[in-house]
Amino acid sequence: MIHLTTPLGEDVVRSLKVGDVVTISGDIYTGRDAVLPRIVKAAENGKLKDLNIDLQGSVIFHTAVSPAGVGPTSSNKLEIESTFDPLSKAGVKMHLGKGAISKETVAALARNNAVFAIIPPVTALLGSQTVEQEIVAFPELGMEAFNRLKVVEYQAIIAAAKGESIYDQH
Q: Which CATH class is domain 2-119?
């Protein structure tokens, strides 16, 4: 496990390789399809400072922020993937999301000493914490069958209790 703290230095990013597992602490930016092209335009026009944005050594997480939390969106959407090169040139050192990206984008990251990291889908995380699986009933339903799982340290957030819901707007 490699522990990273933002802003990320050039040498730190240069030392990262495919397959490294990292933790990230510090400030990160979030954005996806609608806003990232605007950030690129602001960078190209020299307007980032006016927006109080400093991309040097930064991490951009491809997500929206909602009351339900954050989760990665597909980084290979045209509106997102097309921002990797210009944002890396502007100082972003890590793009964080999910999904396969093109060879051209991989090359652009290398040219700019930047990386792409993925947050595995929760299914991958939960799969690693499932130690036994047994179909209990209705095997003909395939993946929809009724299963018994033996799990270790599944993480969850209580979303409703005592008449309150995490999704209630305050």
A: alpha beta
CA 62 – CA 30 distance, rounded (Å): 6
Identify the H or E element spanning 79.
helix 78-81
pTM of the full predicted structure? 0.76
The confidence score (pLDDT) of residue 24 equals 92
- Looking only at the bridges linking them, the beta strands covering 146-151 and 130-137 are antiparallel
Q: Which residues pair with 32 in a beta bridge?
A: none
Name residues whose C-beta falls within 8 Å of residue 131's C-beta, 6 or more positions apart in sequence. 150, 151, 152
Residues of the chain with CATH 3.20.130.10: 2-119
Neighbours of 134 (CB within 10 A): 8
Q: Degrees (nearest 5) of the Cα angle 64, 23, 18?
A: 95
Rg (CA), the chain: 20
Residue 169 has pLDDT above 80, yes or no: no
Of 70, 83, 87, 13, the C-alpha closest to 4 is 13
